[in-house]
Amino acid sequence: MTTPSYITLTILTTICSILHGFTQTTYTRVVADSITHTGVPFATIKVKHKAAGIYSNESGQFKITLAQNDSVVVSSVGYRTRELSLSDLDTVWLAGMATLLEEVVIADERKLTVCGIRERKGSLSFGAQFGGEYVVKIALPDTTLLYVLNKITFLTNRKINDEVLQLRIYDTGDDGLPGEQLLKRPVTITRKMLHDNGTDISDQAITCQKYIFVGIEWTGTISERIDSPFLLKCTDALPIARTYVRTILDPEYQWRLVSSATTVPSKTGNPFNIIASVEVFLVR
User: Fold this and answer.
1) Cα gap 47→62, rounded to integer Å
2) For residue 94, what is the DSSP state?
């Protein structure tokens, strides 16, 4: 083979290889429990190192378009996270995490409510986007004692229509950012939970100390249409740097401080007009 022909062949091979890597395929798959074989609703499917991701629906099904070499990270509360390629499987099987609900002995029956952000002069509103996870760092009443979580309360400044919101509770990692997921089972936040008396999670026997991160993730809608962003309403007594966000559209899927927010006059005067309040009991 002559040198020019060899160079031409090499160039063509390189071009074909590059084009092959950019070839996109749309996959329709289902995320399912490896034991019960039932679908896992609202699981997170994140394309690794790319600004892309999606959630499974109520039945565990999802559709996503990937390049040839893309891999995805699939996760859900109560299951072990998996990293895999979708090209050679029809079902993404998730194995449940073995969790033992320990018996918790309450030392003080008085309910203590600690607030993520208390009201003072005004209120702050954060736009919640589909695919976004928003958490606030909350200090427990006495950082030397152990508490059990009883109830979580949220408030928004507009009605929740068909958005599907998932509760998120994390402990604090070594870097001060949200660490391990503390929920043992998924909890979907409904309109009733938002506007009534909060979400009772006492049956999960979640114990915590010092600080926790509490928030929501917008994982889908009941209809096919994704509505415009809604706002989580909180207040400005604590530093805004205590609020963190991450989104499946972030290639690195990292937690980031909320750097700005719009301050508006408070109209309610309600001391519990907050992004999150946590009701706890003191553990013996």
Assistant:
1) 13
2) E
d(CA 22, CA 58): 31
Q: How far apart are CA 74 and CA 53, in angstroms?
A: 10
Among candidate residues 207, 223, 215, the one with its CA nearest the CA of residue 189: 215
Say what the pLDDT of residue 164 is: 76
Residues of the chain with pLDDT under 50: 101, 104, 106, 115-127, 157, 224-241, 260-275, 284
Other CB atoms closer than 10 Å to residue 227's CB: what's the count? 13
**Contact between 257 and 243 (Cβ < 8 Å):** yes
Predicted model pTM: 0.74
Tell me, which fold does domain 3-94 have in CATH?
A: Immunoglobulin-like (2.60.40)
Pick the CATH number of 106-283 from 3.40.50, 3.30.110, 1.25.10, 2.60.120: 2.60.120
